[in-house]
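Sequence only, no structure available. Ideas?
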Amino acid sequence: RGSTRRFDNHSSIPLSTLYSILDSSTRGVPMDVCTNEGVRSSVIDTYFIANNVAGLEPGAYFFNRNLKAFDLLKRNASRQISGYLCLGQSLFSDASAVMFLMADLHKVLDDLGNRGYRVAQLEAGIIAGKIYLSSYAHSIGASGTTFFDDAVTEFFAPHAANKSTMIAMGVGVPGYKAR
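Reply:
I predicted one. C-alpha coordinates follow.
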Protein backbone atom coordinates (compact mmCIF):
# COMPACT_ATOMS: atom_id res chain seq x y z
CA ARG A 1 0.00 0.00 0.00
CA GLY A 2 1.17 3.50 -0.72
CA SER A 3 -0.25 6.90 -1.44
CA THR A 4 -1.14 7.61 -5.03
CA ARG A 5 1.50 9.88 -6.54
CA ARG A 6 -0.34 10.82 -9.75
CA PHE A 7 -4.05 10.84 -10.60
CA ASP A 8 -5.41 10.56 -14.14
CA ASN A 9 -7.38 13.80 -14.38
CA HIS A 10 -9.30 12.54 -17.43
CA SER A 11 -10.79 9.54 -15.60
CA SER A 12 -13.83 9.94 -13.41
CA ILE A 13 -14.96 7.83 -10.49
CA PRO A 14 -18.62 6.81 -10.21
CA LEU A 15 -20.86 8.62 -7.74
CA SER A 16 -21.61 5.26 -6.10
CA THR A 17 -17.88 4.79 -5.41
CA LEU A 18 -17.52 8.22 -3.79
CA TYR A 19 -20.65 7.62 -1.73
CA SER A 20 -19.41 4.20 -0.60
CA ILE A 21 -16.02 5.63 0.41
CA LEU A 22 -17.58 8.45 2.43
CA ASP A 23 -20.34 6.35 3.98
CA SER A 24 -18.04 3.53 5.08
CA SER A 25 -15.35 5.91 6.33
CA THR A 26 -17.53 8.22 8.43
CA ARG A 27 -19.72 5.80 10.36
CA GLY A 28 -17.98 6.71 13.57
CA VAL A 29 -14.97 5.84 15.61
CA PRO A 30 -15.69 4.22 18.97
CA MET A 31 -14.17 6.49 21.62
CA ASP A 32 -15.14 7.00 25.23
CA VAL A 33 -15.28 10.79 24.77
CA CYS A 34 -17.60 10.96 21.76
CA THR A 35 -20.94 10.07 23.25
CA ASN A 36 -24.07 12.10 23.65
CA GLU A 37 -26.49 10.41 26.03
CA GLY A 38 -25.21 7.01 24.97
CA VAL A 39 -25.35 7.81 21.25
CA ARG A 40 -21.99 7.69 19.50
CA SER A 41 -21.19 10.96 17.75
CA SER A 42 -18.31 12.43 15.80
CA VAL A 43 -16.24 15.59 16.13
CA ILE A 44 -15.28 15.46 12.41
CA ASP A 45 -17.30 16.86 9.52
CA THR A 46 -16.48 15.98 5.93
CA TYR A 47 -16.38 18.57 3.16
CA PHE A 48 -15.23 17.81 -0.37
CA ILE A 49 -14.64 19.19 -3.82
CA ALA A 50 -15.92 17.00 -6.67
CA ASN A 51 -13.67 17.51 -9.68
CA ASN A 52 -14.58 14.50 -11.81
CA VAL A 53 -17.28 12.30 -10.31
CA ALA A 54 -19.64 10.72 -12.85
CA GLY A 55 -23.20 11.59 -11.86
CA LEU A 56 -22.27 14.50 -9.59
CA GLU A 57 -22.03 18.13 -10.61
CA PRO A 58 -18.54 19.60 -10.09
CA GLY A 59 -18.60 21.69 -6.96
CA ALA A 60 -18.05 21.98 -3.24
CA TYR A 61 -20.11 19.75 -0.95
CA PHE A 62 -20.75 18.83 2.67
CA PHE A 63 -21.28 15.11 3.34
CA ASN A 64 -24.20 14.94 5.75
CA ARG A 65 -23.46 11.57 7.34
CA ASN A 66 -26.70 11.60 9.37
CA LEU A 67 -28.89 11.97 6.27
CA LYS A 68 -26.37 10.14 4.06
CA ALA A 69 -26.59 12.99 1.57
CA PHE A 70 -24.38 15.42 -0.32
CA ASP A 71 -25.26 19.06 0.35
CA LEU A 72 -24.12 21.27 -2.54
CA LEU A 73 -22.40 24.38 -1.15
CA LYS A 74 -20.89 25.86 -4.33
CA ARG A 75 -21.38 25.01 -7.99
CA ASN A 76 -18.52 24.67 -10.46
CA ALA A 77 -15.60 24.71 -8.06
CA SER A 78 -12.57 24.41 -10.33
CA ARG A 79 -9.86 21.79 -10.18
CA GLN A 80 -7.42 24.59 -9.53
CA ILE A 81 -9.04 25.45 -6.19
CA SER A 82 -8.68 21.90 -4.84
CA GLY A 83 -5.00 21.95 -5.79
CA TYR A 84 -4.49 25.44 -4.39
CA LEU A 85 -6.10 24.55 -1.04
CA CYS A 86 -3.72 21.58 -0.79
CA LEU A 87 -0.62 23.79 -0.83
CA GLY A 88 -0.75 24.29 -4.58
CA GLN A 89 -0.13 20.61 -5.35
CA SER A 90 -1.30 19.57 -8.82
CA LEU A 91 -1.87 16.04 -7.49
CA PHE A 92 -4.99 17.36 -5.76
CA SER A 93 -6.13 19.31 -8.81
CA ASP A 94 -6.03 16.01 -10.72
CA ALA A 95 -7.92 13.98 -8.07
CA SER A 96 -11.53 13.08 -8.82
CA ALA A 97 -12.53 14.32 -5.36
CA VAL A 98 -10.69 15.98 -2.50
CA MET A 99 -12.06 15.60 1.04
CA PHE A 100 -11.35 17.96 3.92
CA LEU A 101 -11.92 16.47 7.38
CA MET A 102 -12.82 19.40 9.65
CA ALA A 103 -13.68 19.98 13.31
CA ASP A 104 -15.07 22.89 15.29
CA LEU A 105 -12.09 23.01 17.65
CA HIS A 106 -13.62 25.69 19.88
CA LYS A 107 -16.57 23.42 20.59
CA VAL A 108 -14.37 20.34 20.90
CA LEU A 109 -12.06 22.08 23.39
CA ASP A 110 -15.05 23.42 25.36
CA ASP A 111 -16.60 19.93 25.49
CA LEU A 112 -13.47 17.83 26.02
CA GLY A 113 -10.84 20.17 27.44
CA ASN A 114 -7.19 19.77 26.54
CA ARG A 115 -7.90 16.27 25.28
CA GLY A 116 -10.16 17.64 22.53
CA TYR A 117 -7.48 18.46 19.97
CA ARG A 118 -5.98 14.98 20.27
CA VAL A 119 -9.45 13.45 19.88
CA ALA A 120 -10.07 15.48 16.69
CA GLN A 121 -6.68 14.51 15.25
CA LEU A 122 -7.14 10.84 16.16
CA GLU A 123 -10.62 10.61 14.68
CA ALA A 124 -9.55 12.43 11.49
CA GLY A 125 -6.56 10.10 11.14
CA ILE A 126 -8.73 7.00 11.52
CA ILE A 127 -11.26 8.32 8.98
CA ALA A 128 -8.39 9.11 6.59
CA GLY A 129 -7.13 5.54 7.00
CA LYS A 130 -10.60 4.23 6.21
CA ILE A 131 -10.71 6.45 3.09
CA TYR A 132 -7.44 4.85 1.96
CA LEU A 133 -8.74 1.32 2.57
CA SER A 134 -12.12 1.94 0.97
CA SER A 135 -10.51 3.58 -2.07
CA TYR A 136 -8.20 0.61 -2.57
CA ALA A 137 -11.16 -1.76 -2.16
CA HIS A 138 -12.78 0.11 -5.08
CA SER A 139 -9.56 -0.23 -7.13
CA ILE A 140 -8.81 3.49 -7.11
CA GLY A 141 -6.08 5.47 -5.41
CA ALA A 142 -5.90 7.87 -2.48
CA SER A 143 -3.43 10.33 -1.05
CA GLY A 144 -3.40 12.45 2.10
CA THR A 145 -1.94 15.92 2.44
CA THR A 146 -1.76 19.13 4.36
CA PHE A 147 -3.42 22.38 3.32
CA PHE A 148 -3.77 26.12 3.75
CA ASP A 149 -5.73 26.18 7.03
CA ASP A 150 -7.62 29.47 6.81
CA ALA A 151 -8.15 29.22 3.03
CA VAL A 152 -10.01 25.90 3.40
CA THR A 153 -12.31 27.32 6.07
CA GLU A 154 -12.94 30.46 3.98
CA PHE A 155 -13.64 28.40 0.85
CA PHE A 156 -16.32 26.27 2.56
CA ALA A 157 -17.76 29.27 4.49
CA PRO A 158 -20.26 30.08 5.69
CA HIS A 159 -21.09 26.40 6.29
CA ALA A 160 -17.63 25.64 7.71
CA ALA A 161 -17.36 28.80 9.82
CA ASN A 162 -15.31 28.18 12.98
CA LYS A 163 -14.05 24.82 11.71
CA SER A 164 -10.44 23.78 11.28
CA THR A 165 -9.13 21.21 8.83
CA MET A 166 -7.39 18.20 10.35
CA ILE A 167 -6.33 16.46 7.09
CA ALA A 168 -7.16 16.51 3.38
CA MET A 169 -7.52 13.39 1.20
CA GLY A 170 -7.65 13.08 -2.57
CA VAL A 171 -9.16 10.06 -4.33
CA GLY A 172 -9.22 9.08 -7.99
CA VAL A 173 -7.97 6.81 -10.71
CA PRO A 174 -4.18 6.45 -10.53
CA GLY A 175 -2.33 7.86 -13.53
CA TYR A 176 0.04 4.87 -13.63
CA LYS A 177 0.04 1.12 -13.16
CA ALA A 178 1.44 0.07 -9.76
CA ARG A 179 4.05 -2.68 -9.76
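The helical segments are 15-25, 79-85, 90-94, 105-112, 115-137, 149-156.
Hope that gets you unstuck.
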